[in-house]
Design goal:
By secondary structure, the chain is mainly beta. The protein has one domain: Porin (Beta Barrel), CATH 2.40.160. 5% of the residues lie in helices and 70% in strands. It has 1 helix and 15 strands, in the order H-E-E-E-E-E-E-E-E-E-E-E-E-E-E-E. The protein has one helix at 3-16; strands at residues 23-42, 51-52, 58-59, 62-73, 77-84, 87-94, 98-100, 103-105, 109-130, 134-152, 157-176, 181-192, 195-207, 212-226, 231-249. A 10-stranded antiparallel barrel has the order 1-4-5-9-10-11-12-13-14-15. Strands 7-8 form a two-stranded antiparallel sheet. Strand 10 (134-152) and strand 11 (157-176) form a beta hairpin. It is elongated.
């Protein structure tokens, strides 16, 4: 799945708004800063050198963005598409040799790394509770992981790519304190023997106008896997601000 396909799917969702009653489409943009909590890797998992892209090499705080398009029908069923790119650069000098992806880097060599973890997600969520004050939803996310770790010096370079499908449980809770202010807790998370993945956001919502919602909050992205082919666990902290624009079609929402 590519960003172009993501855009096509969004157009389809927006067009279908004109065909349904009691439906709404939503466009969401999120941005802010992201910093590394930890990022430990060893490739391959049984023979490589364990080192940190945060402590051995120093990572940089980065501006990020995320794009989401959602479609909700009858206040119960929500389908959404998310494009969440992430790229973190690190640099430093390590006193010991590093064996990474079959390449041996000399000690006391200036090293640079580019850690990429792009995520494409298709989510279906059913709203168990859909009231004026409380919204509670539970669903399933199909996630495509597009990851790449590049390590290089002036003499050598190597990179490890990884692309795959990850099934995740989706959870969404909204508490509308009053007509203007609310709290949001949203997550895509799953723990399995092969590894784990968590993307959790806690935010304050402000209804600026009828179609426009603004939120400010904290997001945590964490996870990884441990196998003979590779070991990698990372944690990222996000300070985020989001803007959601809702387009409604027909009907009046009822408390259930």
């Amino acid at each position: 799945m590519t960003p172009n396909l993501h855009s096509i799917c969004f157009i389809i969702l927006t067009f279908s708004l004109n065909q349904s009653v009691m439906a709404q489409a939503l466009v969401d943009v999120e941005t802010g800063s992201v910093m590394t909590g930890y990022n430990d890797i060893r490739i391959p998992g049984d023979l490589g050198t364990l080192f940190s892209l945060k402590d051995d090499l120093k990572s940089k705080t980065k501006i990020f963005y995320r794009l989401r398009a959602s479609y909700t029908l009858q206040s119960r069923h929500t389908i959404s598409l998310l494009y969440a790119p992430l790229e973190i650069k690190s640099a430093g000098r390590v006193p010991d040799k590093i064996s990474f992806n079959g390449v041996l880097f000399d000690a006391n060599t200036d090293l640079n790394s580019i850690y990429k973890f792009n995520s494409y997600r298709l989510t279906y969520r059913y709203h168990i509770i859909s009231q004026t004050k409380i919204i509670l939803g539970l669903g399933f996310t199909a996630k495509i992981r597009d990851a790449n770790i590049r390590l290089y010096s002036t003499k050598q370079t190597t990179e490890r790519t990884s692309m795959g499908f990850v099934p995740i449980i989706n959870f969404n809770f909204e508490w509308n304190i009053n007509e203007a202010w609310g709290l949001l807790l949203n997550s895509d998370a799953l723990v399995a023997p092969q590894g784990r993945a968590e993307d959790i956001q806690l935010a304050i919502n402000y209804q600026y106008s009828d179609p426009l919602n603004i939120r400010v909050g904290y997001r945590m992205l964490e996870g990884g896997t441990d196998s003979n082919s590779g070991y990698g666990f990372a944690l990222f902290h996000y300070a985020s601000v989001g803007f959601s624009y809702t387009m409604k079609k027909g009907g009046t929402k009822k408390d259930i």
